[in-house]
Amino acid sequence: MRKLTLNSLLISLALVLSFVERFIPLNLLVPIPGLKLGLANIVTMFALFYLDIPSAIAITVLRCVLASLIFGGMSSLIYSLSGAFFALLIMIMLKLGYEKAFSLAGISMGGAAAHNSGQIVAASLMMKNTAVFAYLPILLITGLATGILTAIISMNLFNIFEKNNRVKY
After folding, report:
1. What's the angle, vertex CA 56, arms to CA 60 and CA 146, rounded to 5?
2. CA angle 87, 88, 91 (to 5 degrees)
3. Domain boundaries, the chain
4. Architecture of the domain made up of 2-163
5. 31 vs 81, residue with greater confidence
6. Contacts 24+ apart (CB under 8 A), 60-68
7. What percentage of the chain has pLDDT greater than the value 90?
8. CA-CA distance, 103 to 105, in Å (whole number)?
């Protein structure tokens, strides 16, 4: 019952972060279409590090589905799920090398790059055109920057949780 409650709270938090992110005028600073900070990824990383892979998958999928129902439509669901699935898969694989080869920043940046790649693959399939891959280098560069930002926020939150002994599940 505790796990279900915690997962529900984390899904809600990820939805709120997705909603708040819509009001951050990032495109005024960096005029790149589709650029987002990926704040909901903080919740995914928390689930990966402090819960388990099934929880991280459930939280990610439900966040994508609910956010698309509330804020978007079917195409946003396809882009969201493809990006989130690629990102989660890569972060799970990179986490296996955590503390040996990859830091939290490396895992976050890998997830951001995979998210962008997944969305480009989805766009290519939906449009039946590979020209969209020309946009990938720009998305990867911005994704690495947002991945670092999410990692910094995550590291600070994780340190606070651990220092205050608040990560008991």
Report:
1. 65
2. 85
3. 2-163
4. Orthogonal Bundle (1.10)
5. 81
6. 60/14, 60/84, 60/85, 60/88, 62/11, 63/11, 63/14, 63/15, 63/18, 66/11, 66/15, 67/15, 67/18, 67/19, 67/40
7. 66
8. 5
